[in-house]
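User: Quick one: structure for sequence A, then sequence B.

Assistant: Sequence A:
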Amino acid sequence: MMILVTGGSGSGKSAFAEDQVVAFGEAERIYIATMFPFDEESRKRVQRHQNMRKGKGFETIECYTGLERVRVPEGSTVLLECMSNLVANEMFQEDGAHERTVQEIQKGVKSLREQAGNLVIVTNEIFSEAVSYEGETRTYQEYLGKINQELALLADEVVEVVYGIPIYHKKKKGGASGEESVE
C-alpha cells in the first residue's frame, strides 16, 4: 500500500501520516527524514517532528539526497517526510541530482516501494499561490509538480489534509483506515 499525503504548511499532514503508519499495525516502522537542518528554524522543526514521533516505534533514517540508496527491512512500514525537502536537497546540495532530480527521486520512490510493505509519503501543496515565480524557484515548482503527479499515479491513496481534516482524492478499499472506496 502506498499513500500520498499532501497539504499546506501547518495543515496537520504530518500527524495524519504518522497515524496512517500506526494504523498499519505492528510492522517495523521506518521514518525517512529529509529535512537538512541548516539553520535554527529548521533544527526546531526537526525537534518538533521528533517529539511527535516519540513512543510510536519509529527508527529514523536521515536521507537528504540519494533516496535510491536507502535500504529498509522487507515488509516494513515507511514514512518518507517530506518530498518538498528532498526535491530542494537534490536540486541545491552539492551531492544532489540537480537537473536529474525528478528521475532520481522517482527511482528512489520505486525502490522504497519494492522494499516496504507500506509506504506513506508526505509532500507540500505549494501550487495554490497566485504569485508567479521565476528562475530556480520556478524550476523547483516544476520538479515538485512532476514528482507529485507521478506519486499520485503510483499511490493507492491520495489524501489532502486541510485544517487537520483528511480529504481523499483517491482511496483504495480496505486501506489503513479500513474505510470503503470514495474514488
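Sequence B:
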Amino acid sequence: MSSPALRRHGPLGLALLLLAVLWVGPLPARAETSFAAHMVLHMGVVALAAPLLAFSLGRSGLLPASAATGRFVLPAALLEFLLIWGWHAPALHDAARQHIGLFALEQGSFLLAGLFLWTTALGSLGSPQTGARAAGAAGLLLTSMHMTLLGALLLLAPRPLYRCGTLCSPLATLTPLEDQQLGGTLMLLVGGAAYLAGGIALLAGVLRIPKVEARP
C-alpha cells in the first residue's frame, strides 16, 4: 500500500484490528468474571476504536455533511450519557455479564453511541462556524466529566456495587471490591482522559485567534 493510501486508510485498519482484538480475543470471556476486564472492553470501544473510526471516516471524506453543523453533538453526548450510566446500573450490568445476547447488545450500543459522538464532534472541524466547533468541544468535555464522575464512584465505593461481584469469580489476585476499583481507575484514566483530550483539542481551535493580514 502506498504511503498516501496508508495515511488515508491506516486509522480504519487500526480501528478494525483493535475491535477484533477486543471482541474476538480473551477479553469477553474474562469480562464474565472480572469487572476490570469488562471496563477494558468498554474503554477500548468508546475511547479508542470509536475515535479512530470517526477520524478515518473524516480522512476518507465519508462523513455526512450534517456532521459539520454541530447540531447533533449534544444529542449524541446525551445518548452516550444515558447508555453508559444505564449499562452500569447494577441490575443491567450484572445481566449483561451473564447473558451473551445482552452483552452483545451492550457492546454494540457502546460502539454506535461512541461513533455517533466522535463523528459529530470531529465533523465540526469541517465547519467554518465557531459555534459548531464549540458544540463539538462541549460534547466531548461533558462526556469526559460524567465518565470521570462514574469512574470516581466506582473507585471510591466502599463495597461492590454489582451482585456479580460475589456471584462471579474476579481476577484471582483481586477481591470483588478491588476488581471494581481497578475498573473505576481505568474509566478515569482512559475514558475521562480520551474525551478530555479531544475536547481540549477542539476548544483550542475555537480559541485560536486568526492571523490578520497586514494591509499595505
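The chain has one domain: 4-208. Residues 6 and 13 are 9 Å apart (CA to CA).

User: Thanks, that's what I needed.
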